[in-house]
Write a structure and sequence with these properties.
Layout (H helix, E strand, L loop, with lengths): L1 H16 L3 H19 L3 H11 L5 H24 L5 H7 E3 L3 H8 L4 E5 L5 H11 L3 E6 L5 H12 L4 E4 L3 H4 L8 E6 L9 E6 L2 E6 L1 H9 L3 E10 L2 E10 L9 H16 L28
Main location: membrane
GO molecular function: acyltransferase activity
Keywords: Acyltransferase, Cell inner membrane, Cell membrane, Membrane, Transferase, Transmembrane, Transmembrane helix
Length: 299
């Protein structure tokens, strides 16, 4: 059944992907009306997340954010499909880096780097275009999709310009410091982490679980950790902004890197809430017996 669904959907996905951008966004405007007003995709999840994250905001303010999010999420989905056929030239016109010198200086010193980010802005386009913009070997950790055919489709377009994709299950074995040149490892750390694997901190007015992988890799390899915000500067245009967390992670107490990541991501979400994935069930886990989970690093 997985193959049947994939091969039925594939021609339509490619048809959308080859649309010129003006027509793509006209389609998005139409789809937004269907998704928001007719289907109501995860609207209750979005409303709960927004209400708990911004208790100081009025109902009218929350609805305004909610609508802006749904407009963005439809844009993002169609932009993601555009990855199937988008050219290097088109990516370079639509994605920029504000301060590449933050990580380029590390490369000059022969240092690899971990980039901590969230599902904020079009991370798919940034992932594709980075090999053209930075000298590192780009590595990205991803979560395997349930449908093997769609999973392979995502892997193909994410890696077609040179990014090395590493599944979460293989990360501990495949991420290493060996290679012809320093690597830049990208980890998105804003999904709900199971309680037994979580570091807990206050994030958007709630006790929130975070995966510890970013910090574990930083301690293991003792490489700098940089946060990146992918700002939406216009419809279909994004700018990545780097923000150093630490150049000496082993000198930091446990949890500090994750705390800094959470603070920076929260800052960016508060500045512009619309391009964050409010439809994710971000807070589906709670603390175990009201206690924090201790991190046990394996050096």
């Amino acid at each position: 059944m997985q193959a049947v669904g994939y091969y039925i959907a594939l021609p339509f996905l490619y048809l959308i992907s080859i649309l010129p951008f003006p027509i793509l966004y006209l389609l998005s405007d139409f789809a937004y009306v269907i998704v928001y007003y007719v289907v109501g995709y995860r609207k209750s999840v979005v409303r709960t997340n927004l209400k708990n994250s911004f208790p100081e905001k009025s109902t009218a303010e929350l609805i305004k954010i909610e609508k802006a999010f749904f407009q963005y999420i439809v844009d993002f989905f169609l932009e993601m499909l555009k990855c199937l056929t988008i050219s290097k030239e088109a990516l370079l016109k639509r994605v920029s880096i504000e301060n590449p010198e933050v990580v380029e200086e590390l490369f000059k010193n022969g240092q690899s780097c971990i980039v901590s980010t969230g599902h904020y802005g079009n991370h798919e386009w940034v992932n594709q275009v980075l090999p053209f913009m930075l000298p590192f070997q780009i590595k990205t950790i991803y979560r395997v999709q349930h449908n093997a055919y769609f999973n392979q489709m995502f892997l193909d377009f994410r890696s077609k310009y040179g990014v090395e994709m590493i599944s979460m299950n293989d990360a501990s074995r495949k991420v290493n410091t060996k290679g012809d040149k320093p690597f830049l490892l990208i980890l998105a750390n804003d999904q709900s982490a199971p309680p037994d694997k979580a570091y807990w901190t206050n994030f958007l007015n709630q006790e929130t679980s975070f995966f510890a992988g970013t910090e574990i890799f930083a301690h293991r390899f003792n490489v700098p950790v940089v946060y990146v915000c992918i700002k939406r500067i216009a419809r279909g245009k994004y700018r990545a902004v780097f923000d150093m967390i630490s150049t000496t992670p082993r000198e930091l107490p446990k949890g500090k890197i994750i705390e800094e990541h959470a603070k920076k991501l929260e800052r960016d979400i508060k500045a512009d809430p619309s391009p964050w994935m409010w439809s994710h069930k971000r807070w589906k886990y709670q603390k175990v017996n009201g206690q924090y989970i201790d991190l046990n690093y394996r050096e």
